[in-house]
Automatic annotation (TrEMBL):
Keywords: ATP-binding, Cell membrane, Kinase, Membrane, Nucleotide-binding, Phosphoprotein, Transferase, Transmembrane, Transmembrane helix, Two-component regulatory system
GO CC terms of this entry: plasma membrane
Organism: Paenibacillus antibioticophila
Signal peptide: none
Stretches assigned to the HAMP domain: 306-358
Record-linked CDD domains: HAMP
Main location: membrane
Protein encoded by which gene: yesM_5
Keyword Transmembrane included in the entry's annotation: yes
Transmembrane domains' residue ranges: 285-305
Protein name listed in UniProt: Sensor histidine kinase YesM
Length: 576
């Protein structure tokens, strides 16, 4: 990882540093914001639950007070006296009835809730009630069923009702009771308490029962209430608890507590987003700041890229092209900054290097030209020596025809090498000279014939003068003559893989593998006394003239002798 970072350029490192700076800040703030949201949500849940619990305790306190009065009223002396046997007169019963009713009204006057108290006397078949507007008859069938232990809701009258008996053991069989007390209060009383609670708190409390429905405050949102009621019906409710609900595309926290007296649920709910809005606004502002900072960072990075990275890349490309040998490379920059001065100095350096290389190259060309002239001058006396020795031998043998032919060939040779200052000759010219020489040798030996097969496109190619003749001479002198038998020389040309090839092979004595390998090695060494001057000279001239890969190659010939391949590289018009 460290090695990969070390190979990155400065621009990439700066970009990564900016990102590495922003990412931890973003992650830390996101974590901190989430922790704050979790704490606030927990506080919202606790506050909602505590507020609902306080409301539930207040309601339960009033209901318990009503229940306790319903139990204790049976111990009143007036009621006890009212239940005595028939020794009471009608006047006494009316007096006692009025006293009982007065006490019941007094309780209602001091009670926080407006309730209705009704006393049933099964033995007397009479009813006393604080409901002045209703005449309540005593009906035995009304108390045939056991009384429940809690308050029941009458959805027709919209009231909550609770019964108690004297004695209390008669709750399961009201027919055995001496006194039945009925306490009721209207559901509107709970609505008033819900309105008061909503006025002093931020919630929206209501009561819920799976069978009876909802009792809400007077300003409730019924659309939202109906959706929440359906959600409560689908939820398995415990004694108390809370849950989150998505209502009308808004998330709410719903808290509930079960009433032990009414068997209803006190429910309250608050919108989470409304309370979390300051935190959300702060979070959005931070993310906006990060976005602005990131945009500014991108602008700065882009400016650095244009002002620093692009000139550096241009400078790197220029130095690479310069190292590859393109000394004409120049850097252009229209901006006026430090890189302009650097580009200006680079261009001056490249120009001076180009001038120096051109001078060195010209000097190298002059030295190569001098070397070629020296090598050319070495081949002339070598060939002359062979020709003079041949004329001498033919004269001794009284072979005037051979002497004349050789003399004419020698004259043509010197005319060929002295008629032009050009050190190069076409293959056609070289082949004409070699053909004259072969004809002379054929006349001399009388047992040799030769074949020439060179394509027309090769005939017009140029090589150093006297490249072909010494090779043919060696094939005759060292290959065919020692055998004393009929001999053959084949000269053919091919062009392949970017090189021209002229192959000279004979059917002479041939050479061993060791001798061929020795000749191949000698061609690459400096000239010494035991190395053949002619072949070394030709190989060196081809190498100087046409570059690497050009020269002579020696191999065994299928004819039985030696195969010599003269090879030189294709050259464009500009190289010639």
């Amino acid at each position: 990882m460290l090695a990969r970072m070390a190979r990155m350029n400065v621009f990439t490192k700066m970009t990564l540093l900016i990102l590495l700076f922003l990412i931890p800040v973003l992650l830390l703030y996101t974590y901190s914001n989430q922790e704050s949201v979790d704490i606030i949500e927990h506080e919202i849940q606790s506050s909602t639950t505590n507020r609902l619990s306080t409301f539930a305790e207040s309601v339960e306190s009033n209901i318990d007070q009503l229940s306790l009065y319903g139990i204790s009223i049976g111990q009143d002396s007036s009621i006890q006296e009212f239940q005595l046997p028939d020794n009471q007169t009608a006047y006494e019963q009316v007096r006692l009835s009025g006293a009982i009713l007065e006490k019941m009204n007094l309780y209602n006057a001091v009670s926080k809730w407006h309730s209705t108290l009704t006393l049933y006397f099964p033995r007397l078949q009479q009813v006393i009630s604080t409901d002045y507007y209703s005449t309540i008859p005593y009906e035995e069938t009304e108390f045939s069923e056991p009384f429940p232990q809690n308050w029941i809701y009458d959805d027709v009258a919209n009231t909550f009702i609770w019964h108690t008996t004297e004695p209390t053991t008669a709750m399961d069989n009201p027919a055995r009771a001496r006194l039945i007390t009925k306490v009721s209060f209207p559901a509107h009383q709970l609505v008033v308490l819900l309105d008061q609670n909503k006025q002093h708190n931020s919630g929206d409390p209501f009561l819920f029962h799976a069978d009876s429905g909802v009792i809400s405050n007077s300003t409730a949102n019924w659309d939202l209430m109906g959706e929440l009621e359906n959600r409560l019906r689908q939820t398995s409710l415990q004694e108390r608890g809370g849950f989150r609900a998505q209502l009308k595309e808004t998330e709410y926290y719903v808290s509930y507590i079960r009433s032990q007296s009414l068997d209803w649920y006190y429910v309250d709910y608050v919108p989470m987003q409304q309370i979390l809005s300051p935190v959300t606004s702060s979070r959005n502002l931070f993310y906006l700041s990060i976005g602005v900072l990131l945009a500014m960072s991108i602008v700065i990075i882009f400016a650095i890229y244009r002002s620093v990275q692009l000139p550096l890349l241009q400078l790197i490309k220029g130095t690479k092209r310069l190292s590859d040998g393109d000394f004409s490379t120049r850097l252009d920059d229209t901006k006026h900054n430090e890189f302009s001065q650097l580009f200006f100095r680079f261009n001056i350096m490249a120009q001076r290097i180009q001038e120096l290389i051109e001078n060195v190259y010209e000097e190298k060309l002059r030295r190569r030209e001098a070397t070629l002239k020296q090598l050319q001058s070495q081949i002339n006396p070598h060939f002359l020596y062979n020709c003079l020795f041949y004329i001498k031998n033919m004269a001794r043998m009284k072979n005037e025809e051979a002497v004349v032919a050789m003399s004419l060939n020698l004259g043509e040779y010197y005319r060929y090498i002295t008629r032009s200052e050009n050190d190069l000759a076409t293959i056609r010219e070289e082949l004409n000279m070699a053909t004259n020489y072969l004809k002379i040798q054929a006349l001399r030996l009388e047992r040799m014939h030769f074949t020439v097969d060179i394509p027309a496109d090769i005939l017009e190619q140029s090589v150093p003068r006297l490249t072909l003749q010494p090779i043919i001479e060696n094939a005759i002198v060292h290959g065919l003559e020692p055998t004393g038998e009929h001999g053959e020389i084949i000269i053919r040309g091919v062009s392949e893989d970017g090189y021209y090839n002229i192959i000279v092979e004979d059917s002479g004595m041939g050479m061993t593998d060791e001798k061929l390998e020795q000749i191949r090695q000698d061609l690459t060494k400096p000239l010494t006394g035991h190395i053949g001057c002619g072949t070394w000279n030709i190989h060196q001239r081809l190498s100087f003239q046409f570059g690497e890969g050009s020269g002579l190659t020696f191999n065994h010939s299928p004819l039985g002798g030696v195969q010599v391949e003269i090879k030189w590289r294709h050259q464009s018009d500009g190289e010639r």
